[in-house]
Amino acid sequence: MFLLFLHQLHLLLLNLLQLPMLRLLCKFSMLNLFSMCLLHLSSHSWHLLNLSMCVCSHSRLISNLLNISPILRFI
């Protein structure tokens, strides 16, 4: 009996998906989900960009310190 109910529910959902408005709503929700994923990825890329800028500035600082080091040894 329960399996019959599930089967009927499945058929009902399939029929509902044939309605243009509901299909449009599904496409919109998928688009919304896609845009949320893009937003999430862009936030990660922003963090990666900040991290890379931090690494670059530290590497420049280390490079400058290494360049100063021979001068300090001379003094």
Structure summary:
Keywords: Signal. The protein contains 2 helices and no strands.
- Spatial extent as radius of gyration: 29 Å
Structural class: mainly alpha
What is the strand tally?
0
Mean pLDDT: 69
Distance linking N and C termini: 93 Å
Helix content: over 70%
**What is the ordering of alpha helices and beta strands?**
HH
The tally of helices reads 2
Shape: rod-shaped
Contiguous runs where pLDDT drops below 50 for at least 5 residues: none
Number of domains: 1
Oligomer state of the chains in this structure: single chain
Strand content of the residues, in percent? under 5%
Signal peptide: 1-24
Keywords: Signal
Could you characterize what this model shows?
The protein is an all-alpha fold. The protein has one domain (2-74). 93% of the residues lie in helices and 0% in strands. The N and C termini lie far apart (93 Å).
